[in-house]
Amino acid sequence: MPIDAKILVTGANNIVAQAIIDKLLVQGKKIRAISNKKQEFKADKNLEFQKCSLFNISELADAMEGIEKIYHCDEFVSFLPKEEDKLYNINVIGTENLVNIALSKNVQKLVYLSSTLAFGTYQHKSKINEETRRTEHKKNTYYTICKSRAELEISRGNAEGLETIIVCPSIIIQQKNKDSIYNIVNIAKANYSSYPEGKNGFVGLKDVVAATTQLMESEKNNEKYIVSAENRTYQSILEHINPNLKQKHLFSKMNNTKAKIIGKINKFRNFVFDAAPFLTSEILNFDGKEFIFENEKIIKALDFEFTSINKVLEEIK
User: Fold this and answer.
1) What are residue 227's phi and psi, to 5 degrees?
2) CA separation for the pair 77, 117 (Å, rounded)
3) What is the pLDDT of residues 173-196, one digit of tens each?
4) What are phi and psi of 241, to 5 degrees?
5) For residues 21, 25, 30 and 31, what is the CA-based torsion angle, rounded to 10 degrees?
6) pLDDT tens, 87-122?
7) Which of 38, 86, 178, 302 has its CA 20 to 30 A from that of 252?
């Protein structure tokens, strides 16, 4: 029997969405979760699942009936050129459809889970904060372009009367997950012999969920927040997760020669086995880049205290 849910969570198969759902259920909230794939959840009287595509307007309108708040977590992540159409359709068109129906249904507030990658995936020359504009560069990933355009759809919805918040997590540290090819823990456990140079922002999954749900319940509107605990080198993170890497004499810095060889091997593997490679040319372009994210805005807005990355890493071992 359908429940009188007031909160909608999109992308129910997404690990962040699932963590948000779990937290809201603990709080006694009634949730309607949607995904274009059938998703199994533990039975809970306050949780209703609907199989729903963001491209099916009638399904989406039905799912949004009676909804007051939306956590928009649905997204598609890929760094493969052949999947650019899918990237655009799910991240941009799907968000556009959601915003349009939210406006027609008089939804009160929408929180969008974006990414710090929306700021650009080429090198920034200074620290990145919420006012930083996306760097325009031919080496920006198409995922970056699509997420930043999705953010424009959220801003457009706000201009038309919908309360909105954009949350930009940095690299989320979470448990090993076989369905997430870009999970940093998966990468460390795979025993790659080379680490990329450079830095990036990192944050624990629990902190992302806490910040996102607190922002929804706050009076904040038409704001964007970076959710990132610390800026760390990739090497320090990988070695902490898998200490064996440090002991390997082959665990060394990535260089141009290695990157070219790996890129060619992955292209060949993809062609022969029709397998999606992890180390694409877009991924290899991250090598040597430093992304330094500021988090003062979210700390000040919510009096938020981040969990140290070392503690997060210890918890997932």
Assistant:
1) -115, 95
2) 11
3) 886 555 555 566 655 555 566 667
4) -70, -40
5) 10
6) 999 999 999 999 999 999 999 999 999 999 999 987
7) 178
